[in-house]
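Please fill in the sequence for the structure shown.

STRUCTURE ENCODING:
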């Protein structure tokens, strides 16, 4: 059952939500949440997104804009679903009302992000106008300030207990995808041994957004302050479209150039992902299995024999069950002499 490739693109992606994971595969998505009683709830739905079926979503550098909007809307919807299990004051909301609230929160989130990560860096960089006269250097200073604000923001929110748990679920999401893309059966043991860093992460996408904006505004220069501000806002879709193509390439290639440009974003992921526990991995696996046939994927991509794969999985599950029984002090599966009942 040796893998045919070192890594193979799976096409699935997701995000962490409150006490759970959202996983998406093409138009299907699932949200798995660990409920307060310990059970795992899984919601499976379709998400067609804006301009579904339109040829615009196939055009390079244009498709990234709509994919970004789709991910924002779906992410907010998934967060609302996961939060519903922990909101003690939750009231039943109508479908239209919930959609309106989601839309308003999404718009507000985008506006807040633009203010913090676009306008604020420009303002802080402008304070150096009296010291630095070179426009190229000013563009670099603005970009560095933007990256520092981004890293500082991540460090600040990571002090919150709920965010730390969110980052652990984020790590579980990455570990699941890395596990199957490395050609390993999707078991808790294999997932725990996998890396929590992945090139197609949203954190890396945001870093590419900042990096592309530095390069873009290095060459685009205007004298009017108002026009500079407007350009930084109006060109955001262009920046997002370029960044999407870069991260899309990163997810499908492993050459030296891709590894170099992916390295900074993957380093920042060490802040936005943390090591999960086994219960978190179980939730992530439930989300993956709801939208993705990983056994078929391993067979088609890595040449696994399905019979051997199932047998190996059964053996591992039985072994794990026995180890758990030993920990709990239950040795009923052993003979009087301490040996296993099975030959």
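FILLED IN BY: designer on duty
SEQUENCE:
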């Amino acid at each position: 059952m040796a893998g045919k490739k070192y890594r193979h693109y799976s096409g699935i992606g997701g995000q962490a939500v409150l006490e759970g994971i959202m996983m998406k595969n093409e138009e299907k998505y699932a949200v798995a949440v660990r409920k307060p009683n310990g059970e795992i709830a899984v919601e499976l739905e379709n998400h067609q997104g804006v301009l579904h079926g339109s040829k615009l979503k196939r055009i390079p550098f244009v498709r990234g804009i709509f994919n970004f909007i789709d991910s924002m809307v779906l992410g907010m919807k998934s967060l609302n679903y996961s939060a519903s299990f922990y909101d003690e004051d939750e009231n039943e909301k109508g479908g239209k009302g919930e959609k309106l609230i989601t839309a308003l929160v999404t718009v507000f989130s985008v506006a807040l992000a633009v203010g913090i990560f676009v306008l604020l860096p420009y303002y802080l960089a402008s304070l150096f106008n009296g010291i630095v006269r070179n426009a190229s250097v000013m563009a670099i200073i603005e970009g560095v300030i933007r990256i520092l604000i981004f890293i500082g923001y991540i460090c600040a929110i990571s002090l919150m207990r709920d965010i730390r748990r969110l980052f652990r679920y984020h790590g579980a999401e990455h570990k699941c995808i890395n596990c199957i893309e490395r050609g390993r059966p999707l078991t808790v043991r294999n997932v725990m041994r996998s890396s929590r860093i992945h090139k197609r992460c949203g954190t890396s996408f945001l870093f590419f957004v900042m990096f592309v904006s530095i390069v873009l505004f290095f060459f685009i220069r205007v004298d009017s302050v108002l026009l500079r501000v407007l350009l930084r806002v109006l060109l955001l879709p262009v920046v997002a479209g370029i960044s999407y193509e870069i991260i899309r390439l990163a997810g499908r290639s492993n050459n030296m150039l891709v590894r170099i440009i992916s390295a900074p974003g993957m380093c920042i992921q060490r802040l936005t992902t943390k090591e999960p526990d086994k219960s978190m991995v179980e939730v992530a696996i439930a989300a993956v299995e709801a939208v993705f046939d990983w056994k078929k994927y391993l067979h088609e991509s890595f040449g696994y024999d399905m019979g051997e794969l199932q047998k190996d999985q059964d053996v591992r599950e039985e072994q794990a069950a026995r180890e758990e029984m030993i920990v709990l002090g239950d040795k009923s599966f052993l003979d009087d002499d301490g040996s296993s009942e099975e030959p």
